[in-house]
Design a protein that fits this description.
The complex is a heterodimer.
Chain A: H1 5-27, H2 32-59, H3 67-89, H4 92-110, H5 127-154, H6 160-192, H7 200-221, H8 226-250
Helix pairs in contact in A: 1-2, 1-4, 2-3, 3-4, 3-5, 4-5, 5-6, 5-8, 6-7, 6-8, 7-8
Chain B: H1 7-12, H2 15-34, H3 41-59, H4 68-88, H5 96-118, E1 120-127, E2 131-137, E3 140-158, E4 164-169, E5 174-179, E6 185-187, E7 193-200, E8 203-205, E9 212-214, E10 223-229, E11 236-242, E12 256-261, E13 266-278, E14 281-289, E15 294-296, E16 299-306, E17 313-320, H6 324-350
Antiparallel strand pairs in B: 1-17, 2-3, 3-13, 4-5, 4-12, 6-7, 7-10, 8-9, 10-11, 13-14, 15-16, 16-17
Helix pairs in contact in B: 2-4, 4-5, 5-6
Classes of the chains: A mainly alpha, B alpha+beta.
């Protein structure tokens, strides 16, 4: 197997430089820094895509089976989704925070065991790709929604764009989380004969989905905007983090692999 | 007074109620993830003491998700949804997404209800050669109308490339390495050949018959039987090499030292090879694997567990759930509804 870690390490450098130049751009408002940052974001995502593709080929299965592999997908998703937001809105503070969160995910991944292990029988299914991919696109969108909400909470003055980004990302994340939960249910039914078993991961994903459902309802029906809505988005993000990490490290259940 | 102006209708059509119910259900579900659910009494007594267990079981906290008060909140949510739907129902295009998304939850819940009442779910432990034609579901016997025979249970493992037999000469130099995942044969530089005859995960020897058996499938004492033949294959000897006891030597140990470097094997597949029989006639054969159940006459058979101590037993889960298609319909409606709300409606508004 060729050494594919070079792509992971280069992607890490790309992510770091993107964050660095977004940050410098915050201090020195010229056009060149955001441009550099965008270049490195894009390079980072492409390198990470290459890494994912090569790991896929080396393992002979989609690289979606443990904490390390899921963090790579998470980091990929955050930047892949964020690039579109950045091109559309060009808000520097969100750029710094989102690229920092992507970098953190990648940094955490690099601390974990990178060895390619054979798939457990329970994971040998075509649903694995669909389930993990939809969940992590959802997680990535909700993470950017959180970044926008957090900045909104500390910002004075015009927060309309931040509010709009929050909402758009939460809508996307809510849809993909629903797809993730549903694909998980269909998979569970075909593997174990039951589409819902109140496993801690399932339950927490439902709790997360409920928090965002409340967000959407108070937004649509009660007209909550701005800071009030942003607090709910932060709460939803905490629930999402617990679904992702807390359940694995603190609770036991069917999802012990990631 | 029209029904829509009654207090009760107003109560159930309020968004406030929906938010409260979602919060309460989320909070109760949360509690259920921290208290292990549906375990045996002994489990709770050991962890929380007998007073703790009494409290949990009285309050229903050891099976929250089927406790009556949890179900009541779900019913209230369903009722709330239904009334909101009736209240706001109008067949305008811009309402379509909202209607679908909310209606879908009712569809999913009714599918679940149908499964609860008309579904069957059971578990059987079956031994190779045995045939079953019924199972226990909801404390009563359900006749399948056909029978199922377990022909073979197969447990496959991944062998790591690092799991190998290393052969040293008397002076400590390495004569050769044989990786168990690659093959069984190896020619040594001196012309002798080494062959691995078999692997035993939990070595045990019957003292009276001198038969080697595996006490279980767990790798408590992994051993391999190795055959060493002199060049030309005339003089053949066999010996056992133990991973955990590298210093056990027998006659062959004089000229060589065999080291069995063992690496924990991961499960690769659990396969139940079964035959379906109807009125004594064999209908078909099938391998049931994790993720690949057998479906026949409305029943599904899932590979659910196995006996680590005795690999001739297999555990199968048997299911029949007529609610599943309805639940899946609900899934489709939900996703369509959300896509319309988030992505089609804004386009319509702009147009």
């Amino acid at each position: 197997m060729p050494n594919i870690n070079i792509y992971l390490n280069s992607a890490f450098v790309g992510y770091f430089l993107a964050m660095f130049f977004y940050f410098i751009g915050l201090l020195f408002p010229t056009k060149v820094f955001p441009l550099l940052a965008r270049f490195f974001s894009l390079a980072g995502v492409l390198l990470l895509s290459l890494y994912i593709g090569m790991r896929w080929q080396a393992a002979g299965r989609p690289p979606l089976s443990n904490m390390f592999e899921s963090l790579i997908i998470f980091a990929w998703g955050i930047t892949a989704v964020f690039i579109f937001i950045d091109l559309r809105y060009k808000i520097k503070s969100i750029a710094v925070l989102s690229s920092l969160l992507g970098l953190l995910a990648l940094g955490y991944a690099s601390l974990l065991d990178k060895e390619i292990a054979p798939l457990l029988p329970a994971l040998k299914s075509n649903w694995l790709t669909i389930h993990v991919f939809t969940c992590f696109i959802g997680y990535a969108a909700l993470t950017i929604g959180f970044a926008a909400s957090l900045i909104l909470l500390f910002k004075k003055g015009n927060i309309e764009n931040l509010d709009s980004i929050s909402y758009k990302m939460i809508a996307l994340g809510f849809l993909f989380l629903a797809l993730g939960i549903i694909s998980g249910a269909v998979w569970a039914n075909s593997a174990w004969g039951t589409y819902w078993s109140w496993d801690p991961k399932e339950t927490w994903s439902l709790i997360t989905w409920f928090v965002y459902a409340i967000y959407l309802h108070v937004r649509f029906r009660k007209g909550w905007r701005g800071k009030r809505a942003a607090w709910l988005s932060v709460l939803g993000f905490l629930a999402m983090l617990f679904t992702y990490f807390g359940v694995n490290y603190l609770l036991s259940g069917l999802h012990s692999y990631a | 007074m029209p029904i829509k102006q009654t207090k009760i209708w107003r109560f159930f059509s309020s968004i406030k109620l929906a938010i409260w119910l979602l919060s309460i259900i989320a909070a109760l579900s949360l509690v259920g993830t921290f208290i292990p659910q549906n375990e045996d009494a002994s489990f709770y007594i050991e962890r929380f003491g007998s007073a703790g267990f009494n409290f949990l079981s009285k309050a229903g906290l050891n099976n929250i998700y089927s406790a009556w008060w949890f179900i009541i909140f779900l019913i209230l949510l369903a009722f709330n949804l239904l009334i909101c739907l009736l209240n706001r129902v109008s067949f305008k295009l811009r309402m379509l997404g909202t209607l679908l998304a909310h209606f879908s939850i009712l569809v999913i819940l009714s599918g679940a209800l149908i499964g609860l009442f008309f579904g069957e779910k059971g578990y059987i432990k079956i031994k190779e050669g045995e045939t079953i034609n019924s199972f226990v579901s909801k404390n009563r016997l359900v006749k399948l109308g056909f029978s199922l025979r377990l022909d073979d249970f197969i447990y496959e493992e991944h062998i790591d490339v690092k799991e190998k037999l290393i052969i040293y000469a008397k002076d400590g130099s390495v004569l050769g390495e044989l990786s168990l995942s690659q093959g069984n044969d190896l020619k040594l530089p001196g012309g002798e050949s080494v062959r691995i005859l078999r692997f035993i995960p939990d070595f045990s020897m019957d003292i009276t018959t001198k038969q080697v058996v595996s006490r279980s499938s767990e790798p408590k004492n992994p051993a391999i039987e190795v055959e060493l033949s002199a060049s030309g294959g005339k003089d053949t000897k066999t010996l056992w090499v133990f991973a955990h006891f590298p210093d056990i030597h027998d006659a062959l140990g004089k000229d060589y030292k065999f080291v069995y470097q063992w690496v924990n094997r991961r499960p690769k597949d659990f396969i139940s090879r079964v035959t379906i029989l109807k009125e004594g006639k064999e209908i078909f054969e099938k391998d049931i694997k994790v993720n690949f159940p057998l479906e026949f006459n409305g029943y599904s058979f899932f590979q659910s567990s196995y006996d680590k101590e005795n690999l001739s037993w297999s555990g199968l889960q048997i299911n029949k759930d007529p609610g599943v298609p309805i639940v899946y319909l609900g899934f489709i409606l939900l996703i369509s509804g959300l896509i319309i709300i988030f992505y089609i409606n804004p386009l319509l508004r702009r147009a």
